[in-house]
Specification:
about 500 residues, alpha+beta, Arc Repressor Mutant, subunit A, 3 domains, nine-stranded mixed sheet, three-stranded antiparallel sheet, elongated, ligase, ATP binding, EC 6.3.5.-
């Protein structure tokens, strides 16, 4: 990524970015109650008495929510605080039935950590370290719906009390691209760990985007915070718009107000929501209904032991153990589903061919990243993705490896598989898609091609070496593309001397 600056009338401005990502914890219940958390339920059907703040109800921390937050902290190499405490953040709004939010301000569960972002997809080793200040757990508020009635707003408390991890970065990002890379990498880690599904469209993961601008080397400027941005593309748009807006304000002699803003995805602009509150505005104090969290060594050890192989470690293993290129390794490990499909297909193909996984890794990687997606896109609605089983794709790759079908024929076989679900080997036989490796049959065709083109044979032997490709083409045409190109080349070389 090149250096990102904004060219103003008075010179270049640098953008300073920090993100507060709210990630919904994957768990069987809410943070302090046993209510369900399924997305899309009918309004107010997933609300316990605790969530609705009925008098006398006492919160009880959900052990799984705490466990998932600790595992997330470990995945970003952060400090795990074995003693932490819940605080009340006091504010009054119609979707907050308690009149306060239970959060963690002074003693968070997870302290400082970091993650490495790639600055160049083609070279994953070109990285930048982004600091993470903390992860604290807190409960979500409900939701106001303003479009259900002409004169009233409705309140849905299904999300009230849902467990969130607030992952607060340091102001270490300097471009929209870096912020996008950070969110994608963080989302990948959360999904590897299983602590959040990362579904930004459903609100499982959203970001508050803090942006300020300054001349290079100056102190940080006044920042604005744009709330609840729910896609990587929108986060990048917010930064682009807000940075340019602030430069215009400063260069016209004004000052940037510290405020909370909202993003309008239709226009790609932000607008003022309210003046930015400071911690004292919320009158934080320790929650009197909750004891401090004290994590013992066994709990910490169990959390650490449950962690999977993480994206960076998996990418390095693919490069060193499987011999994949940095680019392919990076692409294959970016998403949980991608690496899972690749590893299943790799194991199945190696077993079918009786080879090591390293021997077939490059072939499987190229198929997984390029060939198969291309065929699936080309077939479109005519095919069914459920037909693209691991077994069927392994069978196709095995036929390519043993010379039964060519690369082009493999694509045709896969098309038939997607459309019909038939066995790949049966398709290759029935549809005439097997290539011929029989040396005798190929020799007979080549003899005929050379006899019919005696003048060109003479030219070739007289020094026109480029005609070799002509003979290959004529042979493949005569064999309707079913000749094994490697055998065709070998036989031609022998025949032509």
């Amino acid at each position: 990524m090149s250096t990102y600056t904004i060219q103003g009338a008075t010179g270049e401005w640098e953008v300073v970015i920090g993100l507060e990502v709210h990630a919904q914890v994957t768990s069987n219940a809410k943070l302090f109650s046993g209510a369900a958390t399924a997305f899309g339920a009918e309004p107010n059907t997933q609300v316990s008495l605790v969530d609705a703040a009925m008098p006398g109800m006492l919160p009880v921390p959900n052990r799984e929510c705490i466990r998932q937050a600790v595992r997330t902290g470990m995945a970003i190499d952060a400090q795990i605080n074995q003693w932490s405490r819940f605080d009340r953040k006091n504010y009054f709004y119609a979707d907050l039935p308690q009149g306060y939010q239970i959060s963690q301000l002074y003693h968070p569960l997870v302290g400082e950590g970091h993650l490495e972002i790639s600055l160049d997809d083609k070279n994953p080793e070109n990285t930048k370290r982004i600091g993470i200040e903390r992860i604290h757990v807190e409960q979500d508020a409900g939701k106001l719906m303003h479009d259900q009635h002409p004169t009233m707003s409705y309140v849905d408390l299904n999300r009230s009390g849902v467990a969130l991890m607030e992952i607060v970065s340091k102001p270490d990002m300097r471009s929209p691209a870096e912020a996008g890379a950070y969110v994608r990498k963080l989302r990948s880690i959360l999904r590897y760990v299983g602590s959040c599904d990362g579904n930004m469209e459903e609100g499982s993961m959203r970001a508050d985007v803090n942006v300020s601008v300054r001349k290079a080397g100056d102190e940080f400027g006044t920042r604005t915070e744009t709330k609840n941005v729910n896609s990587v593309r929108f986060i990048m748009q917010v930064i682009e718009y807000e940075a340019n807006r602030q430069v215009d304000v400063l260069e016209s002699g004004g000052s940037v107000d510290q405020e909370t803003r909202l993003f309008d995805p239709d226009s790609g602009t932000t607008r003022t929501m309210r003046s930015k509150e400071d911690a004292h505005d919320y009158r934080y104090f320790p929650d009197p209904d909750l004891l401090p969290l004290e994590l013992d060594d066994d709990f910490i050890a169990d959390c650490r032991a449950s962690l999977p192989e993480l994206p960076d470690a998996k990418r390095h293993r693919y490069e060193t153990d499987l011999g994949l290129t940095p680019y392919n390794a990076g692409q294959l490990t970016a998403e949980v589903e991608t690496y899972a499909r690749f590893e299943d297909l790799l194991a199945a193909t190696a077993q079918k061919l009786g080879k090591s996984e390293k021997d077939v890794a490059t072939q499987v990687a190229n198929w997984s990243l390029s060939v198969a997606p291309g065929v699936i896109n080309a077939v479109g609605d005519e095919g069914k993705i459920e037909h693209a089983t691991t077994a069927s794709q392994a069978a196709i790759l095995a036929m390519v490896a043993d010379g039964s079908v060519s690369g082009g024929q493999a694509k045709e076989v896969f098309e038939h598989v997607l459309k019909s679900g038939r066995d790949p080997e049966e398709i290759a036989e029935a549809e005439g898609l097997k290539q011929t490796s029989d040396t005798g049959a190929i020799e007979a065709v080549i003899d005929e091609v050379l006899a019919n083109n005696a003048d060109k044979v003479a030219e070739y032997k007289g020094g026109k070496g480029k005609l070799f490709g002509f003979f290959v083409g004529q042979t493949m045409k005569a064999m309707r593309g079913q000749g094994n190109p490697q055998v065709v080349n070998e036989v031609l070389k022998q025949k032509l001397g």
